[in-house]
Amino acid sequence: MTRAELLADDPIWLILLKVLFIFLFALLTAMITVWAERRLIGRMQNRPGPNRVGPFGLLQPIADAIKMPFKEEIIPRTADKVTYRIAPVLALAPTMIGLSVIPFGGQVSIFGEQTVLQLVDLPVGVLVVLAASSVGVYGIVLAGWSSGTPYPLLGGLRSAAQVISYEIAMGLSIVAVILQTHSLSLGDIVDGQHGLWFGVALFPAFIIYVISMVGETNRAPFDLPEGESELVAGFHTEYSSMKFVIFYIAEYINMIVVSAMGATLFLGGYMAPWPISLINNNYFNTGWWPMLWFIAKVGLALFFFIWIRGTLPRYRYDQFMKLGWKLLVPVSLVFIVVLTVINAWDSLGTTGILISLGFGVLLLIALVMMIPDRRDPRAGRVPLSGGGFPVPPIDLQIPSKPRRTKQARSRAGRRQTVAAGAKEGDDGVS
């Protein structure tokens, strides 16, 4: 039976069991990722991280989950109350939808029922994940607008510009995968990687996707909507208690979704890595083993998120936009044309793979060249007049000594007269 036929025969209790698994998987993985991030970045910065609650601080996320509901909830007087309350839910709900089409494994038997470790395999599964991640940004934008204060609004506007810029680059990187598999179904994309994974065969698209997924999730070094040095805390400045926790969880579940999507598209999905897949007549690609490989690949991608957060400094806003619009989008378009020519000339064989890898090396060189030289004091400076970057122009010339109006001069003269009279009176008394 095919994947679609097996999923169509699932009884209602099995569907509910899969829904429960996806919900628990998202929450538990988010909690573990929070703990791992605090511990790993602590080690990178030569400090212990959480180590008080439980062994190695493992129970710290549970302690935070118990503490946060009892925090005082403060709603700004200028907030739009309805939108203010809906925004966190709107940020969290689409992330769960994105996980519903991800294949976690192959065919297994659950309580005697043959099924596939996937909730639903849609013919347009790729578009469902992209749409869910795009809708999630509305929660951030509405949270910034409904707070009624300037810094959250700026964070929401930044997030809107960010998701538009990097959603395009991410979509173009996925087009390369679709050209190779001729399908938008995530199950078919995994089946198309039985030989060479697309992370190697389509190396430039893989690099672009990795950069775009960091920008899509508002993570460092692309966390411009949450720039503490500029926007206090960004779009969620005015949120507290459980509403803040919902935004926090939504960010980490969104990381899980794009990591699972990247593993499915470019890292072979739930299939075992190369030499393990050759052992014992492909034994490690059957049964429940594929689910283990898939979770390991998602964990590796989440470690990458943590690693770059503890390593790279935050980009400036104009550098961030320049990277998306002037490098990632044009390179994606050029690579799609090159890949189309290769497929029209011949299938993606050894020659096509070598061309793809060479293209990826050129992309890496371009990325390195875009990093400003820190030794040059003029590197990366933005002219005050704008200089082509999206910053407000400063055309006014501020005089060294501000001009004093006639009214100001008359008021200053009256103050001097009163002060002189008071001084003479004091002298007379003495």
Descriptors:
430 residues; mainly alpha; two-stranded antiparallel sheet; 16 helices; 63% helix; NAD; NADH_UbQ_OxRdtase_su1_CS; NADH-quinone oxidoreductase subunit H
- Total of DSSP H or I helical runs spanning 4+ residues: 16
The neighbouring-strand order within the major sheet is: 1-2
Helix residue percentage: 55-70%
Gross morphology is globular
Keywords: Cell membrane, Membrane, NAD, Quinone, Translocase, Transmembrane, Transmembrane helix, Ubiquinone
Subcellular location: Cell membrane; Membrane
Biased composition (Basic residues): 401-414
Membrane topology: Multi-pass membrane protein
Explain what this protein looks like in three dimensions.
The chain is mostly helical and 430 residues long. It has a domain at 72-369. The chain contains 16 helices and 2 strands. A two-stranded antiparallel sheet has the order 1-2. Helix 4 (81-99) packs parallel to helix 11 (241-266), helix 5 packs antiparallel against helix 6 (150-181) and helix 6 (150-181) runs antiparallel to helix 9. The model is unreliable at 384-396 and 426-430 (pLDDT under 50). Keywords: Cell membrane, Membrane, NAD, Quinone, Translocase, Transmembrane, Transmembrane helix, Ubiquinone. It is a multi-pass membrane protein. The chain crosses the membrane at residues 12-36, 86-104, 124-145, 166-184, 196-215, 245-267, 287-307, 327-345, 351-371. Residues 401-414 have a biased composition (Basic residues). It is found in: Cell membrane; Membrane.
